[in-house]
Design goal:
Radius of gyration: 21 Å
Strand order of the largest sheet: 1-2-3
Low-confidence stretches: 1-20
Helix content: 40-55%
Largest sheet: 3 strands, parallel
Distance between the termini: 36 Å
Number of domains: 2
Number of helices: 15
Shape: globular
CATH class of the largest domain: Alpha Beta
CATH topology of the largest domain: Rossmann fold
Mean pLDDT: 88
């Protein structure tokens, strides 16, 4: 059942029916006979990319890139919502770093579109067009706005409005699927609501996307606090919270070997505490072993053995990524050329969508 386009159905308390319409399982995506879905994915260039970003996003993107029509974006405009935290030189450098890490993680820029969001102006133009049809109440209900604005004396309009920019990112490319973590499903639901309302008012312009939550690696928790999701913001203030993709071996060892576990010796996933479950989950994601096989490796052993195994798996995974990253970082002209080609390809598609929206609204030429 389609929601009322004038209803604020993007609340976190969306019904099961609405949620099922907005979320596609990986099995359903794989079973789509003969289909090659258009997929939009993006990461903010704020902070340092970490193991959670790799397992939940970059690794998944690289694994499935040949099955999908992919658009991989460095969403630098989203990093502007707290202007007091913006350092222009750092933001520009981080945008390039994230792009290089996309490529170092195995994403092929020839078969996929890889670009920086601000290099394609249609993102901001479509945001304004969508702003004019998006009820303000929908934005105030967004969970991330509530959490990020809490405790601040004032917040920027961008912090409230960035879900509309995110909707523009997705809708510009006639996106079918958006891979997200569980905490981002609400944003895809809002994108659908925005698109449906626009279509209801001005005719069928936008395709309705669906979210896919990866079944593995989607929620990696902090090494220092397994009750909270590993995040760039926590990592900026907590030294042992995350393993960053560009950390050296010594720093990675300190972080993993100091990871929070339990007071006992339980190593069965279903019976262990959050810290041990986090380590077991990371190891399973990195090795692609069934959980039964992972647990069997530590029968009669302790948490120190588990930490050493996790450390070895992380180092084995990140060393080649760091090496490839250094190659891209050493040739900035080639990286710029890759991003320029990607922006040209993205712009071609985005311009068609903006033209449809302008025509429907009666503006532009």
């Amino acid at each position: 059942m389609e929601p009322n386009p004038d209803a604020a159905s993007s609340d976190a308390a969306s019904s099961d029916v609405e949620r099922s319409e907005a979320v596609l399982s990986e099995a359903e995506l794989s079973a789509a006979a003969g289909a090659r879905p258009r997929v939009f994915s993006g990461v903010q260039p704020s902070g340092d990319l970490h193991l959670g970003t790799y397992l939940g996003a970059l690794r998944q993107w690289a694994l499935h890139q040949d099955e999908r029509d992919n658009i991989f974006c460095v969403v630098d405009l989203h990093a502007l919502t707290v202007p007091e935290d913006v350092d222009p030189r750092t933001l520009r450098a981080k945008s390039r770093e994230v792009a290089a890490l996309y490529l170092a993680s195995g994403i092929d820029p020839e078969t996929n579109i890889v670009f920086v969001q601000s290099h394609v102006r249609e993102h901001t133009e479509l945001t304004w067009l969508l702003n004019c049809t998006t009820p303000l109440g929908w934005l105030y209900r967004m969970t991330q706005f509530k959490s990020k604005s809490e405790g601040r004396e004032s917040v920027s309009t961008g912090l409230l409005d960035y879900p509309v920019l995110q909707a523009a990112d997705i809708l510009l490319y006639d996106t079918d699927v958006v891979p997200v973590g569980e905490d981002q499903v609400q944003h895809v639901e809002l994108t659908r609501d925005i698109a449906q309302r626009f279509n209801h008012l001005f005719g069928e312009v936008f395709r309705l996307p669906k979210a896919v939550v990866p079944k593995s690696g989607a929620r990696v928790m902090g090494f220092d606090d397994p009750e909270v999701k590993m995040s760039k913001s926590y990592a900026r203030v907590r030294d042992r919270h995350a393993v960053h993709l560009l950390d050296d071996d010594a720093r990675i060892k300190k972080t993993v070997m100091s990871a929070v576990t339990d007071s006992g010796r339980e190593l069965r996933f279903e019976h262990a505490g959050p810290g041990v479950r986090n380590l077991l989950g990371i190891l399973q994601s990195l090795t692609d072993e069934p959980m039964d096989a992972v647990q069997a490796r530590f029968e009669g052993k302790g948490y120190g053995d588990l930490k050493k195994a996790v450390l070895e798996a992380i180092l084995e995974t990140l060393r080649p990524i760091r090496a490839r990253y250094r190659e891209y970082a050493a040739d900035p002209a080639e990286l710029d050329a890759v991003l320029a080609r990607g922006a040209d390809r993205a712009r071609e598609q985005a311009a068609r969508t903006v033209a449809r929206a302008r025509s429907a609204l009666g503006v532009g030429t």
